[in-house]
Amino acid sequence: MSPKAKPITDEEETLFRLLRQVNFAPEASQRASALAIGVSLGRFNAQLKSAISDGLIKIGASASTDKRKRDAYVLTTKGANLMTRLTDQFLARKFEEYDALHGELTGSTSGYVPPNQRMTLMHNNLAPIPELYVSYDSAQKMKMDAAELTSLDLTPRQICDLELLMNGGFNPLKGFLSEEDYNSVVDTMRLTTGELWPMPITLDVSKDFAESIEIGLDIALRDQEGVILGTMTVTDRWTPNKSHEAEKVFGADDSAHPAVNYLHNTAGEVYLGGPVTGIQQPVHYDFRARRDTPNELRAYFRKLGWRKVVAFQTRNPLHRAHQELTFRAAKEAQANLLIHPVVGMTKPGDIDHFTRVRCYEAVLDQYPASTTAMSLLNLAMRMAGPREAVWHGLIRKNHGCTHFIVGRDHAGPGKNSAGEDFYGPYDAQDLFREHQEEMGIEMVDFKHMVYVQERAQYEPADEIKDKDNVTILNISGTELRRRLAEGLEIPEWFSFPTVVEELRKSKPPRAKQGFTVFFTGFSGSGKSTIANALMVKLMEMGGRPVTLLDGDIVRKNLSSELGFSKEHRDLNIRRIGYVASEITKNGGIAICAPIAPYATTRRAVREDIEQFGAFCEVHVATSIEECERRDRKGLYKLAREGKIKEFTGISDPYDVPENPELSVETENVEVDNCAHQVILKLESMGLIKA
Questions:
Q1: Which 3 state secondary structure label does DSSP give 486?
Q2: Per-residue pLDDT band at 630 (split at 50, 70, 90)
Q3: Is pLDDT at 199 greater than 60 in this prediction?
Q4: Distance (Å, whole) CA 492 – CA 500
């Protein structure tokens, strides 16, 4: 039973009509506007003055060249937010009145519910859903007004979140969560209104930025090039308990989880909350014809008459088993198929979305065009397993889908620090099944498909009755990556030749890829000496350009303005990592030899580089006593005397690598031998040929 809709007073209804009129006809005359909303001109003028006084409407310059025409009116951010809230109240009341009338006439409920309730019927999946954008004219004026607002340049993850807030993909959210809603979502998977929502959508900022703004003010939300996307009225500001968030949302406060690592080491210290007003969507220059808003997909389904649509979520290339799985899922649900891959942010180390989309397009002709569509989803995944599955279901419901395929270990991040899976294989399916009726979208189980050689077809593994009498073939994701890395054959029964061709373009055999060797250790441990010897050996082999990024060289040429505080040392290492990632991406070999004392920074550099190639961490495990004995520059002596502050190993900590690819001892060992150990390790990793 839906909660009773909040009544709207006559005064609120007139204000709602005024705001709506100004939003859609900002340059209409006062007489025409009064007529449009059904009030006298005198009452309209009084209402208009009151709205301007309350900061809901402002006077903006007219776009007309006719000097006799008065200035136009435009909604402020506050006015746009109020119009959205009143719209929901107005619709809720009208739905309630209709439902009551329907019950009086037929003796049964109509099936319609207020738009702020998540439990909707399947036949409503084609109706438009609310967006947070203002009209084009209002948006143009808001762009000009935004020049006076405090601006925030959003991170890539925040841009993904903002896009789905504005276009309705995160409906019923009207902005970034308030502190009260955040606490409720973290602890109960529900907003304070009771609506199901499993993922905290927060605007994380630095402490300095948070202290520079006042509650109640608007801020301009911009992309990384400074283009304004929307505004937000800041209603909340708080410092979250991130460990509690990690435990409740991701199941463990374990930095082996990529989202937990992001939470602690990348996200801002302070969260801001408040309603968002959309001005324009982020610009995507890639695959523009494949990107659809929820309402664009709903209109497409409506046009084709698709009443049932099953969505397939993927962040990996499609192979033959996936094709068979999606065919069976659509048949089981008697629905059309939407291939809906995530192209925003996925798990670090995943294949880039450019390659994946080319793979999807290469196999689309294997699907019947009349019953299959593909659209790209600009979502920043959190890899939150069960909660993520429910979140994905709500997002697909907003995009007009009636069914959703939930996989085994759906959105799982891999192994935790103890080497065990973060979530059980069917936890995501269990949680989705528990909430699917409320969500209004049905789950289709992801079946593990295997190839039966004798019958030359894929079949669900748990439905094969004669397992002992047939040959069952399967290639795991790990095995596929190994075959790609080593340039081995990938059979046609496993994948389409066109997909394999695309994968080989972006993932050539490891011996032809770029990679980074990252030395870390105390000052004086021998990093630079070994790195120089390794560079000469690799250049002698030839085949790929080799670049040495030694700590002292980088300090002189790339980071000369930096000091030796923790913040500056981190920034120096991140710069080294960025340059190394570019070298790796372009097929070269980067050799880095900084001290790099902090594990979190080394991990961030690893993630940056592993998007493009291999990362080999080498711990030069020379003891601090031996480094001090070798100290030709007298740095340790100065540090002991307190003349050098924050010196690694003396007055500042060094995080010893827990699982480096290689650890070398340099005491009583020749440099050539140490460099040769690295060469042997690179050979074993397949990065150079023996």
A1: helix
A2: confident
A3: yes
A4: 9
668 is catalytic: no
What HEC string does 306-322 produce?
CCCEEEECCCCCCCHHH
Alpha helices in 107-234 (DSSP H): 136-145, 156-166, 179-188, 207-211
Which member of 157, 237, 315, 396 is catalytic?
315
Asked whether the predicted pLDDT for residue 426 surpasses 60, the reply is yes
- Residue 668 φ/ψ region, left for φ over 0, alpha for ψ in the -120 to 50 degree band, beta for the rest: left
CA pair distance 432, 439, nearest whole angstrom: 9
Chain mean position to CA 108: 43
For residue 314, indicate whether it is catalytic: yes
pLDDT digits (tens, 9 = 90+) for 482-539: 888 778 899 999 998 998 888 888 888 888 889 999 999 998 888 999 999 999 999 9
Measure the CA–CA gap between 268 and 621, rounded to whole angstroms.
Answer: 34
Q: pLDDT by residue (tens digit) across 541-568?
A: 988 999 999 877 788 888 878 877 788 8
SS3 call for 613: coil
Q: 164 vs 158, 159, 235, 639, 687, CA distance in Å?
A: 10, 9, 20, 52, 40
Pairing of strands 270-278, 203-205: antiparallel
CA torsion, ordered 342, 169, 81, 242, to nearest 10 deg? -60
* Strand 449-452 versus strand 457-460 pairing type: antiparallel
309 in Cβ contact with 125 (< 8 Å): yes
Task: Decide: 463 and 450 in contact? Cβ < 8 Å.
Answer: no
List the structure tokens of 70: 């008065």
For residues 164 and 282, is the Cβ–Cβ distance under 8 A? no
Closest by Cα among 320, 366, 362, 359 to 495: 320
For the record, the structure tokens of 622 come out as: 């020379």
Q: Of 314, 529, 532, 547, which residue is the catalytic one?
A: 314
Of 14, 316, 532, 600, which residue is the catalytic one?
A: 316
User: Is 233 part of the annotated catalytic residue set?
Assistant: no
Asked if residue 103 lies in contact with residue 80, where contact means CB atoms within 8 angstroms, the answer is no
The residues facing 613 across adjacent strands are: none
